[in-house]
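Methods — Computational structure assignment.
A single polypeptide chain was analysed. Its primary sequence is given first, followed by the predicted tertiary structure written as structure tokens.
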Amino acid sequence: MTDPLVDVCFITGSSVSLDHGYALYSALSRVLPALHENKLLGVHPLTGLRAGNVLKLSRGSRLRLRLPASRIAEVLPVAGKRLDLVGHTLQVGVPEIHALRAAAVLQARLVNIKGFEEEVGFQRAAQRQLAALTIQGRLTVGRRRVMRIQGQDDRRLSSRGVRAYSRRVHHAAGARNRRSPPNGLRDLCTGALERFLRFFDVPVLCMTASLPMDRRDTLVRACSLQMYPSDPESFPDLRRQAAHKRYQISLIEEPHAEQIAVDALIGGKKVLWVVNTVGRCQTIARRLVQSSAPAGGSLFCYHSRFSRSDRRDRHEEVVRVFRRDQKQSALAVTTQVCEMSLDLDADVLITEYAPVPSLIQRMGRCCREPDPLLGRMGLVYAYKPESERPYQAEKGAIEKGERFLRELAQKGAVCHADLSDYLQQMPVTEPFIEEGYSSFLDSGWAAGSKQQDFREGDEFTVDCVLDRDVEAYLEVKRRRGVTDGFIVPIPKRFARFNEKLGRFLREAPASQYSSDFGFYVLAIPEGIFPRFSGHIIRQCCCSYCSGER
């Protein structure tokens, strides 16, 4: 029987140099002389919050030693020791032991292969070494970095990596990593949350309706979160609500969706229509305004590409109209923003196919009452989108969402417990690398976004001020007033530099902006488009809608 590898993790504190690898190895060798010749023992770099050339350790930082389980006793003497790391003192605490779990993605922070500095030769040499370890997969390497060895100007070390000096092997058969990869929240979201919880010692309340067991265990074990309720059986009201049949799911063709929405409005219902991109959201809302949407109802187009002041007003209006004490019919055509920001209780949900966690969040905005009265049932209609955007990078996400919906549709009426059971049974297929890149922590004082996984489209957006509002923005800024309301997230290709706005803001054309539909990127349609606002149809006079462009 083979001797399994484990990670022995010692709780640590204080701070160390950013490049602390050699100093840490030397300090450990002084306490554990056998370490220097032990090829079966690995020392992981410490993790923490970068502050210049110093790495500040946090409550989540660990001194992590990887070794065969039979040799754990050999490293225990380091517990309680103070290690001298060239001007920094590292206090080592009590150990924790974690078993390794198979993973589809591996990452190495620094990779140096003697004699192979150019990219092609380096990649081939790395691939040969992986083959010798019986690991098969696709290797990705980053740009070459050259580091000077301290005190020896004539000696330089060449290394390569992927994103922060990392090397990744995709779909590695038989490979091992530190923790099983979760799949309910997206990998970048989980990585950012994990980094936040590790590095900031602040009270945190995490609430979600779509967290699988493996991802929950990661946050509990690694980040010291406490589950509430710890014993769900002690809350019989929650069990009763979870078992209440509240959804009737139907799969339809896209052309039928509009008539279903109009019929529901005529019947006095509140309808939430969720699509996966801003462009489709605007197109559907505009088409409904032009065609047969009944007067007397409220129609809203709601997504992320509004100015913050318009988005705030739109948010408040949508939430107010969808309250159960408001009797008029209403239709909100929206995007993924509804999954996190809208507290709605719709009678009818129309949605494009999406990843399973997203679909569960969308269904949470339909028949939201804890105990629906008089046999109320939320009607859910789903159809296949015209493209997989923006989920094309999540291989098979749309297909999995379709299978989820088909299985539930065959059950007839379903409850929250059915959604939870399906989510828990889903296989782990979207790995994330623990302690990966987080722009907020790793980009310095002016954090920049390199993670665009939460977009409603394929384009990188930047904060802009509409050209017509630049002078007003500057005046409010000069008076030290609140300028947030002027900011609009705009696809980068439409942003223009304006020296008056400084380095971090751009200017965008107001001719493509409507306070009713947000910023447009599609071809400019012809015609004049009124909108529903409460019970009143009134004219939108922007140049986009007035046909001036």
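Note: The CA atoms of residues 468 and 528 lie 21 Å apart.
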